[in-house]
Design goal:
Blueprint lengths: L19 E5 L19 H13 L4 E4 L4 H8 L5 E4 L4 E3 L5 E2 L9 H12 L5 E4 L4 E4 L7 H15 L3 E6 L2 E6 L4 H8 L9 E6 L5 H9 L3 E5 L7 E3 L2 H12 L18
Parallel strand pairs: 1-2, 1-10, 2-3, 10-11, 11-12
Antiparallel strand pairs: 3-4, 4-5, 6-7, 7-9, 8-9
Length: 267
């Protein structure tokens, strides 16, 4: 049974103040899930909408995703927004400065071998090697969910306290424990153009709960897509999220004489 607190999924959340900052998850939030993460696509209208939002907010918009920044750049090309990738392991500020190490972690070499063997024996499961983290997907083979979650938890236990298994929707990830979407959001909030703005974070999964807590602690707004996780507000689907973002973009008027916000590296 769906929690009573989530019953108003069809309602569009109230619009925030124009001096807020936006943090946006991607898969399941801005776009529908694809059976394979590599098969996801972002249409031109969404790219144009994000550009309009970033312009109206003076650049105070960031993608906060489990994808790597490199994957986000391919997906949203030619945009290069501020972004946090791999659940906060890597981060690109609004100026384009990069933080964190995206090189493959040799500590995960044994885990890579174990997970490759796992998917080889279980058709339609998929291991996504993110360099500093590993994701085991079973969206196309949900019958393997218990085995997948158990396998990744066992690997995390062998690696010790610095790694953990992060459960998501039809995926379980092996990643460093100290990085979260909350740590990424907190880092953004310490620097312009996010500084002193009320944060809004939109996500869809239990992997976004830390981010929700971070913005709520700052007096901001948390918005969950669907019914998998609690938040202050809810949207039914990525399509409703887009309608909400379009309505918010219409309230934003760039400051007189201001140049349109440009993403670092945009072509």
């Amino acid at each position: 049974m769906i929690d009573r607190s989530l019953k108003k999924l069809h309602a569009i959340p109230p619009l925030p103040a124009v001096d807020c900052c936006l943090f946006l998850d991607v898969d399941g939030t801005l776009i529908d899930f694809a059976s394979n993460p590599a098969g996801a696509r972002v249409d031109a209208d969404l790219k144009n909408l994000l550009t309009a939002l970033a312009t109206g907010l003076g650049g105070a918009l960031a993608l906060v995703s489990g994808r790597s920044i490199a994957s986000l750049d391919l997906l949203f090309d030619p945009l290069r927004p501020a972004a946090a990738g791999l659940h906060g392991i890597e981060r690109r500020s609004a100026t384009g400065a990069l933080h964190g190490d995206s090189r493959p972690d040799p500590q995960l070499d044994a885990a890579r071998a174990v997970l490759r063997a796992f998917v080889a024996a279980r058709p339609q499961t998929l291991v996504e090697d993110k360099g500093r983290a590993l994701a085991l997907h079973f969206r196309a083979a949900p019958q393997f969910e218990p085995e997948a979650r158990t396998a990744v938890r066992a690997i995390a236990a062998q690696l010790g306290e610095h790694f953990h298994a992060l459960d998501g929707h039809m995926v379980v990830e092996l990643k460093p424990r100290r990085f979260t979407k909350a740590t990424a959001i907190e880092a953004f909030l310490q620097e312009p153009p996010f500084l002193r703005r009320k944060p809004v974070f939109i996500g869809d999964d239990v992997t976004d709960r830390d981010g929700f807590a971070a913005v709520e602690a700052r007096g901001g707004m948390s918005i969950a897509v669907g019914n998998r996780v609690r938040a202050q507000q809810h949207c039914e689907s990525p399509q409703v999220v887009r309608a909400w973002l379009e309505a918010f973009a219409a309230t934003l008027t760039p400051r007189a004489g201001a140049s349109p916000a440009k993403y670092p590296g945009s072509r």
